[in-house]
């Protein structure tokens, strides 16, 4: 069939469309030629011509944001069956969004009420009779990865008989091997604080992590025997108990020797709680008047002769005191603003509680006297400035202070030899008088994912030589004497992370180390 005259010719619209396409192609070709002549880019070579393949961009590094829950995602009005751009929709969306944000914030607000074992229980062994420790324990007495920098050769070269004997004793501590350290996960998250129970009959260890979990481990348990024909999957894990007394990081904890049934813990949730180890109940002993006040606590301590008064420091640079026998109020709590920056750690002088030392982000370690400490204008007894921030200041019963600092040093100050026990109120030391007696080189560059290294003394050593322990970035725990002599470097098979949080038992030569993965290492 012959085509009609309308179908044999293009319409005016089609002619204009084709003209536009031709004009666009010509313009693009002209621009491309001009760019090549100006050297802006070279024409792409065909495949197989030997041209190098473009390099793949490296994937951006993921940055982990701690303790931040994701905000709720918004949904469109269409998906929710609502009319768009209406005031009702907008108001409802904002209300839902704010409600979700408030719910996330409420999860981190500290709990001021008391709660029982069932309220705190997260995982592990269910407690018999709701007790963490037996009455018998209370009544029987409280008294470069893997590259070693200290070993047997150093011990053999020691000429001082007492020092050599102590080095051999401390070096004789061995890693607890009932279970591999990789299987002793005492907390779900990174360990920030640890403590031994003062009992000498049972090694009982507490650990607090960054999300407020409290792990309890009894190292007197023995691994059950399994037959050779049993499969590896049948091998039971160690018995652990996990509680959650706080809503945020547990920064410090302690058991007072005259009150062995109570564990006191300080947290970034602004509270200090007392855990009754017999009843497994937790009570808040200190907290700001309002739960909206954020005063993250960095440390807690109590005087050796007073189990009723709490002392603490905050990340806001304050130092506080409260007698638990008085009703908690602004009138019974005393706070001193001692630093414009955070106080990372502090400790009381065990034999004279009016003296205490603080370590701060402002690069100073300061000594204070509560007898002459003004609330309005607090003045330290002495202070020493380091090149970088000071992480912790630990007092021992002999009047010596050990500090760790980001300038990669452990500094030892011997105030006992300077007569601190005889100082009168108002006594001060000049900068020249308050200098470290010993400086030990020690790698303190923990970075973001490893807990800050802090020295911790053995409070009642069974010899005349004082000693303390501190984590080692080469995946050991180092033990030093009061004069800076290294006594031991504790390690062992199965330790795959830095035991950054290291603690001594008060009187026994037991040392525990905690890692960023919540694992426990124990030497006995």
Describe this structure in words.
It comes from Penicillium diatomitis. DNA-binding protein that binds to both single- and double-stranded DNA. Binds preferentially to UV-damaged DNA. May be involved in DNA-metabolic processes. One of its GO terms (biological process) is regulation of DNA damage checkpoint. One of its GO terms (molecular function) is DNA binding. Residues 53-62 have a biased composition (Basic residues). The protein is an alpha+beta fold and 524 residues long. It has a single domain, classed as 7 Propeller (Methylamine Dehydrogenase, Chain H). It contains 7 helices and 28 strands. Strands 1-5-4-3-2 form a 5-stranded antiparallel sheet, with no helix packed on it. Strands 6-7-8-9 form a 4-stranded antiparallel sheet, with no helix packed on it. The chain is globular and about 115 Å long. The termini are far apart. Residues 1-7, 46-51, 54-66 and 135-143 have low confidence and may be disordered.
pLDDT < 50 runs, ≥5 residues: 1-7, 46-51, 54-66, 135-143
Strand residue percentage: 25-35%
Largest sheet: 5 strands, antiparallel
Instruction: Find the CATH superfamily.
Output: YVTN repeat-like/Quinoprotein amine dehydrogenase
Tell the overall outline: globular
Ends apart, CA distance between termini: 105 Å
Gyration radius over CA:
32 Å
Domain tally: 1
Order of strands, main sheet, comes to 1-5-4-3-2
Count the DSSP helices.
Answer: 7
CATH topology: Methylamine Dehydrogenase, Chain H
The level of helicity is: 10-25%
CATH class: Mainly Beta
Structural class: alpha+beta
* Rounded mean pLDDT score: 86
CATH architecture: 7 Propeller
Number of β-strand runs: 28
Region (Disordered): 40-85
Organism: Penicillium diatomitis
Pfam family, one: WD40
WD repeats: 355-371
């Amino acid at each position: 069939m012959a085509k009609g005259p309308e179908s044999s010719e293009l319409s005016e619209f089609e002619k204009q469309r084709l003209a536009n396409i031709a004009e666009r192609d010509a313009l693009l070709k002209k621009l491309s030629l001009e760019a090549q002549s100006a050297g802006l880019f070279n024409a792409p070579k065909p495949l197989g011509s030997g041209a190098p393949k473009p390099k793949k961009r490296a994937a951006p590094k993921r940055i982990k944001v701690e303790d931040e829950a994701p905000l709720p995602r918004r949904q469109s009005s269409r998906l929710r069956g609502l009319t768009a751009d209406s005031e009702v929709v907008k108001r409802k969306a904002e209300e839902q969004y704010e409600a979700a944000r408030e719910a996330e914030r409420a999860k981190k607000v500290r709990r001021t009420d008391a709660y029982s074992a069932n309220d705190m229980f997260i995982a592990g062994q269910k407690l018999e009779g709701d007790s963490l420790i037996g009455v018998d324990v209370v009544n029987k007495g409280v008294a470069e990865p893997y590259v070693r920098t200290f070993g047997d050769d150093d011990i053999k070269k020691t000429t001082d008989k007492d020092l050599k004997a102590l080095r051999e004793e401390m070096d004789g501590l061995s890693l607890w091997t009932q279970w591999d350290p990789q299987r002793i996960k005492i907390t779900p998250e990174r360990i920030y604080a640890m403590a031994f129970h003062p009992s000498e009959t049972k090694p009982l260890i507490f650990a607090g992590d960054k999300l407020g979990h409290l792990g309890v481990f009894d190292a007197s348990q023995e691994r059950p025997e399994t037959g050779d024909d049993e499969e590896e999957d049948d091998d039971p894990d160690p018995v652990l108990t996990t509680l959650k007394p706080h809503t945020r990081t547990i920064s410090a904890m302690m058991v007072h020797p005259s009150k062995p049934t109570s564990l006191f813990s300080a947290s970034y949730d602004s509270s200090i709680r007392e855990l009754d180890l017999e009843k497994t109940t937790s009570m808040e002993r200190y907290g700001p008047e309002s739960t909206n006040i954020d005063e993250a606590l960095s440390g807690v301590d109590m005087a050796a002769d007073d189990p009723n008064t709490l002392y603490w420091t905050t990340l806001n640079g304050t130092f506080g005191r409260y007698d638990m026998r008085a009703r908690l109020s602004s009138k019974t709590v005393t706070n001193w603003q001692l630093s414009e920056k955070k106080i990372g750690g502090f400790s009381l002088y065990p034999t004279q509680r009016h003296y205490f030392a603080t370590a701060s982000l402002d690069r100073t370690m300061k000594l204070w006297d509560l007898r002459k400490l003004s609330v309005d204008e607090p003045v330290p007894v002495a202070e020493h400035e380091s090149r970088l921030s000071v992480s912790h200041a630990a007092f021992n019963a002999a009047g010596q202070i050990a500090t760790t600092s980001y300038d990669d040093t452990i500094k030892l100050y011997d105030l006992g030899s300077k007569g601190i026990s005889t100082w009168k109120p108002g006594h001060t030391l000049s900068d020249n008088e308050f200098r470290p007696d010993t400086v030990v080189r020690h790698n303190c560059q923990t970075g973001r994912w490893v807990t800050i290294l802090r020295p911790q003394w053995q409070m009642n050593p069974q010899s005349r030589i004082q000693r303390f322990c501190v984590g080692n970035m080469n995946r050991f725990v180092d033990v030093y004497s009061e004069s800076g002599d290294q006594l031991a470097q504790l390690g062992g098979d199965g330790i795959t992370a830095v035991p950054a949080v290291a603690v001594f038992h008060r009187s026994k030569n037991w040392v525990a180390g905690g890692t960023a993965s919540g694992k426990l290492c124990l030497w006995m």
